[in-house]
Amino acid sequence: MDGKARYDNYRLVRVTLKTDDHVKLFQELEAESDSYTFYGHARKVGQDLTIMVAAHKIYELQDLTERYNFECKVLESNIQKLIDEEAATIKPKDTPSSDFDWNHYFHLETIFSWIDKQIAENNFVEGFQIGSTFEGIPIRGLKISKKSGNTGIFIDACIHAREWIAPAVATYLIDQLIHSKDPEVVDLAENFDWYFVPVLNADGYKYTFEKDRLWRKNTKPYGRCKGVDLNRNFDVDFGGIGASMDKASYDFCGSHAFSEPEALAVKNFLDENAKKCNIRTYYTLHSFSQLYMSPLGWSAEPVKNYEDLKKIGEKAIEAIEKTHGRVYKTGSAIETIYPSSGSSRDYVYTNYDIPIVFTIELRGPPDTPTLFILPASEIKPTCEEILNSFIAALNEARRLGYYKSN
């Protein structure tokens, strides 16, 4: 057998849970049927929930809508159409690094060759490797450092395989920090050391190009199932709220904390370098929902510098809106998106002296009809608004006294 997963006439819907019966119904549907793909779990009355419905279940859902009287809005009637349209914006695997841009999506091989090009052409750029994936692919990083003694910033992207806009934004940030003449960008390039891992989940990223566009996890087998949600595999409230011990679940957290080499690689890198390299800021790039989220995801208890992180987040989302008009929300993860345990964001904040920690959920909005299949025409605008958010966020953190050693 050869070929890719197809989603012909799979429908994307947004339902509103107005009663306890609605919550119970969708909890049962998720538990009992793999023909409904949930993007978030049914948790409470008043919640909006996005679900992808297999073609043969569309009329069942319509029947349930009438019987249970819940709101159901169709966002997209054929997911495969989105995937087919996106295919025209993917450059071939053998695309030379000189043709790299932010108007197309690129295979892992091209991203790696583009990284090599930046290292070869710039004496203040060097490569590093934080580990290897389950399948043996190097988890590659790139460091930008123009002078000694800088505060460090660590950024990873694509911990979830299908979130293609995340590596695009990471590579754009790299490109701008290397090449931009904008004084505000030059300031960031000269006064911080930058550590990027543009494709943390390299196995999964390849899998989304070659097998299943909507794959989320890594590719390590667990019995008949495949893959772990790497952003549930960190040792912070492991296996708690918003994570699953069910190997078939999209948010399966793994057999134990750091069971997955990709998550362990982040831990090992920060264990060795967080203090030595004075890393005081951590960002992890995701999609979608347009959120700028601080810790925590597993507890509603505010972290010690919650108010500062709120101020930094507000400056960031203000800069985003000024760029292209996109509206993001900011706040702790548990108050902006949904409860989750075992995330890299919460682990980094809890275990290292790294006080500035954010997850960015990139475009589109929570009710986007395109899911993770962001049109290529939106890559560049997304990159531009996120660069401006970094300028605003880091300047606010400086104003609040976080980088006084710079």
Distance between the termini: 57 Å
Strand content: 15-25%
Q: What is the arithmetic mean of pLDDT?
A: 96
Structural class: alpha/beta
Could you tell me the radius of gyration in angstroms?
21 Å
Strand order of the largest sheet: 5-6-8-7-11-14-12-13
Low-confidence stretches: none
Secondary structure tally: strands: 14
Helix content: 25-40%
Q: Count of DSSP helices?
A: 12
- Report the sheet with the most strands, covering strand number, pairing sense and barrel closure: 8 strands, mixed
What is the N-to-C succession of helices and strands?
EHEEHEHHEEEHHEHEEHEEHEHHEH
The coarse overall form would be globular
What does this structure look like?
The protein is built from twelve helices and 14 strands. Helix 5 packs across helix 12 and helix 9 (306-324) packs antiparallel against helix 12 (379-399). The termini are far apart. The model has no long low-confidence stretch (mean pLDDT 96). An eight-stranded mixed beta sheet has the order 5-6-8-7-11-14-12-13, sandwiched between helices. A four-stranded antiparallel beta sheet has the order 2-3-1-4, with helices on one face. The protein is of the alpha/beta class and 406 residues long. The protein is 36% helix and 19% strand.
